[in-house]
Amino acid sequence: FALTSASMSDGRRAPVPFIGRTEELAALHDAFEAAADGLVVALVGGDPGVGKTSLAQAFARMLRADGVPVHWGSCVELGGAPPFWPWVQVVRSIGDHAVDTARADLEARAEREPFAAFDALHQVLRTNAGQTRVIVLDDLHAADLGSLELLRFLVSSAADLPVLVVG
User: Fold this and answer.
1) CA–CA distance, 122 with 125 (Å, rounded to integer)
2) Alpha-carbon distance 91 to 111, whole Å?
3) From CA 32, how far away is CA 42, in angstroms rounded?
4) CA 150: distance to chain centroid?
5) Nearest residue to 50 (alpha-carbon basis) of 135, 165, 141, 133
6) How many CB atoms are located within 10 Å of the residue 142 CB?
């Protein structure tokens, strides 16, 4: 496993070995394999600064190198982030077609259905459900209530989708 680190004299980034966390990476890989049969949520815990984000980044790089779609959303610990901010980032990383689909779906149903945002993301994931994909929600402890409720909704409503959510 390699993380990108120090800049070399020609401006490129030199790979630095990702040391340790072998068991944690193996557990995430097992969760990814299980997600082929339906949605799996893997939560990474630990004290601040222990390397949770670095672990998720190393895992994401490993999967991306194998052609697996990985979508990253960061929860903001500072105030002022709009509701569902990590999910907005995830939808944007899926592509413009996903943003357009979600926006049209929300606009069409926002006034009639209280869970329109939840269902819009569910439909985006269902539409793009070809291969197993990974969604990383970084700093999940700082997520807004709506983002957490959306994750809870997906656990019950999208259980058949090949998705691994890492929080």
Assistant:
1) 5
2) 21
3) 9
4) 13
5) 141
6) 15
pTM: 0.79
Q: Give CA torsion, residues 148, 164, 79, 57, to 10 deg.
A: 160
Rounded Cα–Cα distance for residues 102 and 157 (Å): 17
Q: Look at residues 71, 53, 66, 61 and name the one whose alpha carbon lies nearest to residue 121.
A: 71
Dist. CA 25–CA 117, nearest whole Å = 32
Question: What six digits make up the tokens of 24?
Answer: 């944690």
Q: Where does the chain have alpha helices with state H?
A: 22-35, 52-65, 85-94, 96-109, 116-127, 145-157
- Digits of tens for pLDDT over the chain (167 positions)? 333 333 345 554 444 456 668 889 999 999 999 999 999 999 999 888 888 999 999 999 999 999 999 999 999 887 777 778 888 888 888 876 666 666 655 555 545 564 777 777 788 888 776 789 999 999 999 998 888 988 998 999 888 999 999 99
Annotate 21-58 with b (16+ C-beta within 10 A) or e (fewer).
beebbeebeebbeebeeebbbbebeeeeeebbeebbbb
